[in-house]
Each structure stands twice: as structure tokens, then as C-alpha cells.
Amino acid sequence: MKANHTGKVILAGAGPGDPELLTIKVARYLQQADVVLTDRLVSEDILKAYVRQDATLIYVGKQCRRGASTPQETINELLVEYAEQGKLVVRLKGGDVSIFSNILDELQILAAHQIPYEIIPGVTSALGAAAYAGIPLTARGYSTAVRLLTYYKSDVVTDAYWKELATTDDTLVFYMSSETLEGVVANLTRHGINGDKLLAVVEQATTPLQNLQVCNIYDYNEQLKGRKFISPSLVIIGRVVGLHEQFGWLANSNSREEYFKPVAKLFTTITDHTEKVKDHVSRA
Ligand code: SAH
């Protein structure tokens, strides 16, 4: 049904976990939304507090390693379908909307259908984790820059780039890389990364279940190798990590519980509006 495009899509970041890190602007849009399409890494408390009872709430999470993901095509279709019905749609993503997300696909599809949109930022998990772990990412005298990276697909990092990463004094933050961490460490140490660099893994950053583990990058094999980190977790490497000793302000939860539900479990809580999504997921 091609209506006269009175609908609109708000592409919004929900922050890294702590519901209070949601911006006021996104909270307001959630209160107004007719339809909310949400990622897995969004706090349930945010959805409970702000999404209207009569709004359509659809979980379109992706969790590739668990093999239960909503195909991007389905998300695109839902965005267009609801917007063309004249609805106000909030597409809610964990952290910030533009960091390691599929925002480009969504922007392209919205542009192609001439659907109006807004992009509202959120606190990306690197910044949430750094703050809640007491690790100032570009502390004066320690580091002058920070790089947001991922080692999810090993083929995208060339040897020359690893060498550069091993040599730089920039703080390195790796998203989606806790399962490939051994490779990250091997590549950096192989290229002679300085021994004053520490490595931190922040599990479930900014949630009540946050845990931080820190070791010298050259001690990784003895101290952290083989450990299974709880999803989501983030890796920070650099001299700044040592500042946590002095400025960390939040104790580890020491819990192994998961704050964000796995994608598959979410399907027990969804409404019939998501039949289409369920159908796609079961076939994915
Ligand atoms: N757009 C998101 C990132 C999506 S990619 C953002 O801006 O944060 C998903 C990856 O983000 C996870 O694999 C993990 O590395 C990281 N991540 C997201 N939320 C996190 C959290 N609360 N704690 C630790 N890492 C998190």
C-alpha cells in the first residue's frame, strides 16, 4: 500500500545498557512511536518504560554466532511497510546507531522510498565501557587518539595494518571481538606491541552485571586465554587501561547471568505483528 508518505522513521541509539544512558530525545520519540523495531542489545527496561502499551513492538535482533538473526531484508521491509502506512517508526539500536551497525542499508532503503527519517545518536558501548570501567580513553600523556575496530572477520585486517596497530600509541577498542581475542593478541604481540600496554575485557558494560578483566597483553595466554566471555563484551587495549587501577569506581558484579536475552528467547514474548519476522528467522 503506497500511502502519501506521512510516516517517518527515527533511527535511534539506545545506549550501551544502563537505561539511564538513553537520551531524552529518544525517550520522547519512543513515547510517541506507533511502531518500535528493536535490536537485541537494548535494555528491556527502556522498552517497558517508554514504549506505549498500544504500540507495536518488534524484536529484530541479530546474533550471528547463535544462528538466530532477523535478516536485514526483513528489517528493511518492515521499516518501509510501516512508514508507508503513515506510522511513526523508531528503529532502536544498541549503543550508537552508526557504530558497527547496518544503518547504511536502512538509510538506502528509506532514501529509495523517499521516506523521511532522523538519525539520533546514542552512547556507543566503547564510551560506556570506558566510563564505567574508569578508563579515560585519551588521557593526556597516555594516548592522543582512540580507534574503534573489530576483528570479527579476520580477513579484513592486513598484516601491514596489524603492524601499525601494534606500533601506535592510540587506544584500541575492539567490538565484536571477544571470541577472536586470541587472534588479536597474537597479531599484536607478533608485531612487538609495547609491553606497557594492558588489555581489558568489559563484559555487559554499564549494566548491573558488568565485569572487567584486565591483564598485560603479554600475560594474556596465562591469564585469559580460553575464557568464555559473556556477550556483549568489548576489548580495550592501551596504556590508558592501567588507569583503571586508580580510577575504577564500579565493582565487578561477578555474575555470569546475561543482561540481554539471547535472540531466540525473545520470540516467546513477541506479538503477532512479528509473525513475518518469526517466519524469516526460522528459515534463516
Ligand atoms: N552500535 C553498537 C555496537 C553494535 S556491534 C554500539 O554503538 O555500541 C555489537 C558489539 O558491541 C558487541 O559485540 C560488543 O562488542 C559491543 N557492545 C555493545 N553493547 C555492549 C555492552 N553493554 N558491553 C560491552 N560491549 C558491548
What would CATH call the homologous superfamily of the largest domain? Tetrapyrrole methylase, N-terminal domain
Q: Got a strand count? A: 10
List SSEs in N-to-C order: EHEHEHEHEHEHEHEEHEHHH
The amount of beta strand, in percent, is 15-25%
- Biggest sheet statistics: 5 strands, parallel
CATH architecture of the largest domain: 3-Layer(aba) Sandwich
CATH top level assignment of the largest domain: Alpha Beta
Q: Helix/strand-derived class?
A: alpha/beta
Low-confidence stretches: 265-274, 278-284
Counting structural domains, the number is 2
Number of helices: 11
Name the helicity range: 25-40%
Describe this structure in words.
By secondary structure, this protein is of the alpha/beta class. Helices cover 31% and strands 18% of the residues. The protein has 2 domains: 8-123 and 260-283, Tetrapyrrole methylase, N-terminal domain (Cobalt-precorrin-4 Transmethylase, domain 1), CATH 3.40.1010.10; 135-247, Tetrapyrrole methylase, C-terminal domain (Methyltransferase, Cobalt-precorrin-4 Transmethylase, Domain 2), CATH 3.30.950. The chain is built from 11 helices and 10 strands. Strand 8 (198-203) and strand 9 (211-216) form a beta hairpin. The chain binds S-adenosyl-L-homocysteine (SAH). S-adenosyl-L-homocysteine binds at residues 16-17, 41, 93-96, 99-101, 124-125, 129, 175-176, 202, 204-207, 232-234.
